[in-house]
């Protein structure tokens, strides 16, 4: 019997680079709820782990 795995949900991450904004979809892990109701998580972009912060509908690299 196979072990149940929750499906991975990909969230939109807004990436700002040299005045250009693009939205990429990535899996966000280690989501933590902070006291001031903002959420922080980690995401892997180009094989590097970066912190992201929830901002309305998108996540933004911190």
TrEMBL record:
Top-level taxon: Bacteria
Protein name: Ribosomal protein S7
Lineage, uppermost ranks: Bacteria, Bacillati, Cyanobacteriota, Cyanophyceae, Nostocales
């Amino acid at each position: 019997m196979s072990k149940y795995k929750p499906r991975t949900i990909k969230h939109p991450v807004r990436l700002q680079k040299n005045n250009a904004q693009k939205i990429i979809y990535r899996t966000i892990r280690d989501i933590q709820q902070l006291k001031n109701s903002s959420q922080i998580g980690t995401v892997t972009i180009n094989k590097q782990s970066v912190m992201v912060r929830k901002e309305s509908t998108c996540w933004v690299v911190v």
